[in-house]
Amino acid sequence: xxxxxxxxxxxxVITVTAQPPAAQQPPFDKEIQEFKKxxxxxxxxxxxxxxxxxxxxxxxxxxQTNFPGHTIINxxxxxxxxxxVIRYANDIIIPYQPKQVIVYCGxxxxxxxxxxxxxxxxxxxxxxxxxxxxxxxxxxxxxxSIKPSPSRYQLMQKMTExxxxxxxFLKSQKKTSFIDVFNPMLLPTGRPIPAIFLEDSLHMNAKGxxxxxxxFEPKLMKKAVTD
Length: 227
Known about the structure:
Layout: H1 2-18, H2 29-41, E1 49-53, H3 55-58, H4 63-66, E2 72-76, H5 82-87, H6 89-92, E3 100-104, H7 107-112, H8 118-135, E4 140-144, H9 156-171, E5 176-179, H10 206-216
Parallel strand pairs: 1-2, 1-3, 3-4, 4-5
């Protein structure tokens, strides 16, 4: 009887351990599925201006109100890094056929590890750029400089180098632009302006977004139609 019990227990252990692990959802899948659910209810118009990237966009919830003369689609999500935006490009960029794609991402890339260099971030952006360019050849691609945050002051040099590398790359490409929010967010001393950030010293308050509105306005594609 003991032998039979041992055999059955062993069989149970083998059966349990042989079960394949539950498939893990990729990062931010829940947010992306929510965007797709919204799209299934009311799909955004073509030829709009698409914002895609990390939480500085996600938290800009009144961006459409800030730019009433344009049609804005905001697809900022979580604390995303550029590989996340690349992963979901076919879900939240390409289908909208936007007139202009504005990318804010790279900030979290640099903060994620000491091994992430400006060259790596630039390489990641180029990968995203060529995905968009390959499928939307007439779309203008705009990069928003990495912003200077008090909580990430130790990364300022890397941010400056990354901004410079990406700006240089965009100058070599057609139908591109670069929005500099880095310099307008600095004090004369070269440190980030504390008063434009929330208590976390990372995300912006209304004063911070007011700086972004001023920087964005001249770079938004005109006549963003709603048909």
